[in-house]
Amino acid sequence: MTPDQRLAFAERPERRFALAMVAPGVLVLVVTTTFPLLYLIWQSLNNINLSMPGMDRFVGLENYARMWNDMRFWAAFGFTLIYTGATVTLQLVIGLAMALLILRIPRAQWAFRIAAILPIVLAPVVVGLIWRSLLLTPDFGIVDFASRSMGLGSHNWLGEPTLARISVIAIHTWQWTPFVFLYMLAALAALPAELYEAARIDRANAWRRFVHITLPLIRPTIVVVVILRMTVALSAFAAIYAATGGGPGTVTEIINLYAYRVSFAELSLGYGAASAVVLLALTMVVAGVLFRVRRAA
Amino acid sequence: MRPGAARAAMRGAALMVAAGLLLAVWVVPVALTLLTSFKNEKEVLAYPPSVVFEPTIKAYGAVLTGPTNIVPNLMSSLIVAIGTTLLTIVIAVPAAYAFARLRLPGKKPVGFYVLATQLVPPIGLIIPYFLILNRVGWMDSYRGLILIYLTFSLPFAIWLLVSYFEDIPREMEEAALLDRASRWQAFWHVVLPQARGAIAVTVTFVFLNAWNEFLFAVVLGGATVKPVTVAMYNYINTEQTQWAQLSAAALVAMLPVIVLGILAQKHIVSGLSAGAVKGVSRR
Amino acid sequence: MSKKGAVRLAGVGKSFGQTTVLRDVELEIRPGEFFSLLGPSGSGKTTTLRIIAGLEIATEGAVHLDGVDATLLPPGDRDCAMVFQSYALYPHMTVFDNIAFPLKMIRTPPAAIDAAVREAAARVRIDHLLARRPGQLSGGQQQRCALARAIVRKPALFLLDEPLSNLDAKLRVETRVELRRLQRALDVTTVYVTHDQEEAMSMSDRLAIFMDGRIVQIGTPEEVYQKPATVDVAAFLGNPPMNVLPARLAAGEVVIGEARVAAPHLAALGTRDVMLGIRPSEIEIGAGGVAATVTLCELLGDDVIIDLDVGGLLVRAKASGRTRVAEGERVHARFDPDRLHLFDRTSGARIAA
Questions:
Q1: Tell me, which fold does domain C7-228 have in CATH?
Q2: What is the ipTM score, two decimals?
């Protein structure tokens, strides 16, 4: 027997056992995700309209062609990028700044740890509803009240196109920044203190210490956080659905909402499937790029 | 006082103020919900918003016993969340152990496949599920909803557990194997009892995610299966929003996950980043 | 009495992909023997033990246990018990359950388990701790719990992987004696992995010395100490280790730099370059011999270690603690000519006198 055959023989029971342990999970995933995704691609090549049952037919790439010329789709595509980019950047900057700040007041850390958990564990749909009603309603919402008190006047926070976009970005940022904060707090607390003492002896000021020591050390953490937050932002749905429903008009539609409305409000499932396929592709591309970046980091 | 000390004190005070403001940003919306839930519907619309008022539990009464109460919805959420959690754990624990420890042909690509399924956007699943479940008659059923919940809970749980299993010393199993335990016995008697904590954390997060889910529930649910996240809309209709009741319902619905979140406080960071940190194991 | 526990490794090698960690291991361990695998870390001794246990599969050669080809047998079918360096106690079980585990796996009736566990625990004097969990035991108690778990089912072969390395120095010496006594009482073949030469020398019947994935010498402690097979073994054993100096043999004399040591009995070896080995304890200070300068004195109580500069070479001598020399002092060092070890300059192999 060659060495390889030997190992293969000796390890056969282990491999069999491993296969038996993994098989149910992989099988369930194939059935529950891969198979439906293949069906989704098939759907995207068909005209399926629930308002016209019995009229389903294969149309090839027609849905994609229609999408190519659909300004509303491109607006949703564009806002998906803005929404993802803005929320991830804001979460990262604010979360990191908070962590750096809180690290300097150790006695108050417990309060922030508890406060940070609240938004994270809330259902996004509940967060959207609370913001929509208690915070952003003109005249009665606390944000509107604050705006008026500061002399900035009352606004239709979710009804005016630009403000509505800002609002849905703010809601997502509000809910998930605490996660980045906690993540960064853990990463920063694990950094070796001696480095900072050495830098202090070398008379590096706080900003230089941050740029030259902290930032390079937590770079891998930042990459991981960006990956996590991007995938969540790209699959966001419930908070926007609850706050604006995609409106006013279609202004706050990200692809998720667009696909949902096309499929379940306009009942055009084939066309909705095509836009979901595009989102799937976009997610995979973004994830692929980020994983490559991570491996390099 | 020396000028340096005065400056340090000023900076300390400024830090505290900044921190206090930040804390307010995250606490106020939740506190406001709590406050509103104890108001009557007239007090809710007072301007400027009232902080001092006569508290009433009328909203809670409506939410828990009124005609549009959410008790059946809480039950619905409970069934879906527990069903999902049980199935997920039973399937994910053995798989995660194999990924973490055992020699397995094609482990890397299969592990990567599991990781990739975690990235699938829900909207990509909901459209085919809608048609498939309609065809097999599983719309508005617990079976259907639990099945689609597995799509996010299973990859998540597997990857979370892998990172925990990797931390259990390998010699434990080797000792068991030398003592004539079978692979299964080593797993069952030696590894599993040591993974109890990890499984508890996993259960917490799977339950939490299932409890909070909205998109799948609103599309695939119905009159029978209507989790609380969907039932929030009982208090919002085109004419008016019943703010106090909405707030009370939100608090009641979110109480379990807030408690779970605080209990699992230490693990929240690792719990919500499963798979991203460790990646596929090398062996 | 026909004893069990014979081990024979024939041409055993182990590679992980392209890297070979072990090659050409030939080894025979007799039943009842206390056999040590000694070597620096990374020399292949632990891999050899794991191959005997079946935790690793040899990629070359064969493993025979009591005459049976066990090369590809799974660990559970080899009748071996092992004590790990980390002890690998099951933290969720009591001491009793830990010790009972191997018996439960072979479906021993409960009454027999109870008796066997108590007997094994008593042998290592932890019978009063059976209800505790490993986390509540001291390091020494954990170590003995691991021992009890290994001996409870009376295995044919007893494998120990650096079992004393996590104990403090004093306890280590005590446990050494106890372990040896236990092995004698049970009369069980024991394979003992250690990097500590003192442990290996004091406990073993025989030992194998590993270097760079090969066995370089097998023998009794006395044999390997008195007649190290290579210059590396010579430099590895002893505390402080043997001095190894480049030297030249010429006409019944050993020439070390400027110094000459008369060794008429080596005249037959002719004229050649060698490596000369001499143990620190075989060097005598002050009674004639080669000229040297004391560079450092390390008093260890009974003994003193004296670093000498002999014509630019560092030579360490070990003398009685009462020897009085000062750093910088010029002295004479006598090398006992009958205690010189000679090794080939290029291959490092021992040259028989």
A1: Rossmann fold (3.40.50)
A2: 0.91
